[in-house]
Design goal:
Layout lengths: L1 H18 L4 H5 L1 H19 L9 E5 L8 H14 L4 E5 L11 E3 L6 H4 L1 H9 L4 E4 L2 H11 L5 E5 L11 E7 L27 E5 L7 E7 L2 E4 L2 E7 L7 E6 L4 H10 L3 E6 L19 E4 H4 L10 E4 L1 E4 L2 H13 L5
Parallel strand pairs: 1-5, 1-6, 2-4, 2-5, 6-7, 7-8, 11-12, 11-13, 13-14
Antiparallel strand pairs: 3-4, 8-15, 9-10
Length: about 350
């Protein structure tokens, strides 16, 4: 199983590297990209006037590229902000890596099983005191939400920019400031799910990293305190690991982001990358020494039953410009619909 995971990591790395280059083969395969982009545009036009509309305001946080860009931390940040302003938000998610079938909808609790609801959804349920709903169909998820949680007055959709069956009031597109759009081509030649021109139709463009003109910068940093996955009350300041060597474990879209953030605060890292949404077993974290193990919160929710004493989860903190949050709040209060 370990060797299979290593092969998947290498294959994923090769595909991502290829998506960031332009060569002879890229241009030979361009017709496939054109077909994909045409179908994507056709779906957009088809659903534009047929999408399901709800009385609740719906905010979509999504991206144009394949892979993670930091949507889940941003959604959590916005949800917390809305709570502070008197709203009763809920979060709906696809539940990537979950065991849900196509028509199933599930409310996520802190005690839910990550193999059923997905690691990102379980992370949201652990961090936020609000309804978290997972379902392959976001439309079904909101129907379920309106029946079971009548107090909710606004919905945040974690991912779903291309889920056109669901009408939306506000669209926020999130960009990875390091990789941006790769070679600029659509699947399968490049990493884009839609053409870059789609950004002209969203309400806000947020960049995780260095933002360009017209984009809002999202600051991400490691939390000041690490905690034990099997006992969150057991905590250590992150400064305790500065100058020391640790095993760094990450089963996220871009593990190097986590490893580099640890290095930037002065922690010496032995890298252990896993594929995104990897379902950890205790044996995955058995190393031939007693060095501490630092991992992301997203991975830690799948390790809550592990008994190793040296495992520590490091939270990721997000911060957005005050002006961005004020503009978003005004858009919500005005009830202006996304274009």
């Amino acid at each position: 199983m370990w060797h299979f995971s290593i092969k998947r990591q290498r294959l994923t790395a090769m595909i991502i590297a290829w998506w960031h280059r332009k060569n002879f083969l890229t241009y030979c395969l361009m017709p496939l990209s054109w077909v994909f982009q045409f179908c994507s545009r056709l779906r957009y036009c088809y659903w534009r006037y047929r999408a399901t509309r709800f009385a609740l305001p719906v905010i979509i946080v999504g991206n144009l590229t394949v892979g993670g860009t930091g949507k889940t931390p941003l959604v959590a940040y916005i949800a917390s902000f809305l709570q502070s302003k008197g709203f009763n938000p809920a979060i709906i998610m696809h539940g990537y890596g979950s065991g849900l079938h196509k028509m199933q909808v599930e409310r996520v609790l802190p005690t839910s099983n990550a193999t059923l609801v997905g690691d990102e959804a379980l992370l949201q349920a652990n961090k936020n005191k609000m309804p978290i709903i997972v379902g392959r169909s976001r439309v079904r998820a909101i129907h379920f939400l309106t029946k079971t949680c009548p107090e909710v007055d606004i919905v945040l959709c974690d991912d779903g920019l291309q889920h056109y069956q669901l009408d939306r009031d506000i669209e926020i597109a999130l960009i990875d400031g390091t990789n941006r759009f790769g070679n600029g081509f659509c699947l399968p030649v490049g990493p884009l799910r839609e053409g870059i021109g789609r950004l002209a139709k969203v309400d806000f463009i947020v960049t995780n990293g260095k933002a360009l003109s017209g984009e809002w910068p999202m600051q991400t940093q490691l939390g000041a305190t690490a905690f034990a996955p099997n006992n969150p009350a057991s905590q250590l300041p992150l400064t305790c690991f500065i100058g020391k060597k640790v095993h760094a474990v990450a089963g996220i879209a871009h593990p190097m982001h986590f490893f580099n953030m640890l290095r930037e605060v002065g922690i010496s890292v032995i890298e252990h990358p896993f594929v995104d949404h990897h379902l950890f077993k205790a044996t995955d974290l058995e190393f031939s020494d007693d060095l501490p193990i630092l991992m992301t919160e997203k991975d830690a929710v799948k390790c809550q039953t592990f008994t190793q004493a040296q495992i520590w989860a490091v939270p990721l903190e997000v911060k957005m410009p005050t002006e961005f949050m004020e503009q978003l709040l005004r858009r919500i209060q005005s009830g202006q619909k996304a274009s």
